[in-house]
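re: ur question from yesterday

yeah so i grabbed the chain u mentioned. its 212 aa long if i counted rite. heres the sequnce exactly as i have it in my notes:
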Amino acid sequence: MIIAIDGPAASGKGTLGKQLAAHYGLRHLDTGLIYRAVAKTLLDAGHSPENRARAVAAAEAIDPTRFHEPALKSQAVGAAASLVSAIPEVRKAVLAFQRSFGRTPPGAVLDGRDIGTVIFPDADVKIFVTATPEVRARRRARELREAGDRVNEAEVLADIRGRDERDSQRAVAPLKAAPDAHLLDTTHLDIDAAFRAAIDIVEAVRAGRKRG
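ran it thru and got these structure tokens back, copy pasting raw so excuse formatting
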């Protein structure tokens, strides 16, 4: 089974992805970490995240063992990742890796911006997770503070609005819900409630397929 979860920054899709993967015994891939790893590689080497040649080279040499580095969660890396992910050649370079991951038995939960529209348009279940920008900024600011960063929530909100615009307006694989995706608004849901709602969606889809 392949479950595709898409949504904007700090909507809660990553947390849901981990929980659903654990619940159904599937593997999990936060595809945003791929672009963050590419972005950090560029920043560490002193290159601009908009340097196409360097970004593509970093994407082609992606090292999955780096996906768990705490530094990938920083605000600076996140902002750079938004720029890197808009480069068509970078997205093409990591496409095969994502599809191979998802198709490896017993299946996987992948979360990102274009999973249900580009990476796995034939996913068994598609969920589009969203929340208001203000709520997402509050969540991201709290996450960064817990990681030891000193952040200004207004600046985080501005960054999130900027990323939303870049992600939804880019020419290749823009952020949008697939036509057959199930919308899950987490604005007024805590983690447990959002997880229960996601389980309800998955089970409803599975039940429908069984009846069919």
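noticed a couple things. The chain is about 55% helix and 10% strand. also The chain has a mean pLDDT of 93.
anyway ttyl
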